[in-house]
Amino acid sequence: xxxxxxxxxxxxxxxxxxxxxxxxxxxxxxxxxxxxxxxxxxxxxxxxxxxxxxxxxxxxxxxxxxxxxxxxxxxxxxxxxxxxxxxxxxxxxxxxxxxxxxxxxxxxxx
Amino acid sequence: xxxxxxxxxxxxxxxxxxxxxxxxxxxxxxxxxxxxxxxxxxxxxxxxxxxxxxxxxxxxxxxxxxxxxxxxxxxxxxxxxxxxxxxxxxxxxxxxxxxxxxxxxxxxxxxxxx
Lengths: 110, 114
Hints:
The complex is a heterodimer.
Chain A: E1 9-13, E2 18-23, E3 31-38, E4 45-50, E5 55-56, E6 61-64, E7 70-75, E8 84-92, E9 104-109
Parallel strand pairs in A: 1-9
Antiparallel strand pairs in A: 2-7, 3-4, 3-8, 5-6, 6-7, 8-9
Chain B: E1 4-7, E2 10-13, E3 19-25, E4 31-37, E5 43-51, E6 54-57, E7 64-66, E8 76-78, E9 87-94, E10 104-105, E11 109-113
Parallel strand pairs in B: 2-11
Antiparallel strand pairs in B: 1-3, 3-8, 4-5, 4-9, 5-6, 7-8, 9-10, 9-11
């Protein structure tokens, strides 16, 4: 699986958009980009995933660059409950393993 | 649906004791897996299964056994607990058909080995 690079931490103001970057410069054509988050002491929670196109769901938007070497997760209106560790993961569709790195610790401040 | 359930939530063992961490899912998922998470670190894959009767090793399988006799259950056994196995254990499952499906995680079991 391709490695990912994320900033270790970032702060965000409540009510503002949070933009979380992820670099995956060695991604191959059949690898998806997944985002999960882990709120303190809980099991990881799926947020969104994509292959080439930008994706949006009720939780977030995922913007993937045209060359697919990086992506940005956007939380449109961050709330205090969005404080968590966010993991960017790349995985082939038929691969069984999710490889979790250190992620980005996002703190949403009132 | 209850999703992925794990028992117990907390467990304290003495070195050398054995125990089984239980994991069950009610989504008819073929794939199930166990991860461990040490303080301040990401999750590491211990064992996984792609269906009843089929299991395989992940990144850190030593000291752990698994079996998959039904689609619903995937227990993790510690045969002789060691302090290095103090960790939080997460079970996960996902549907295999289609390939790019999301993985669902349980709430975790916090294990301390003294």
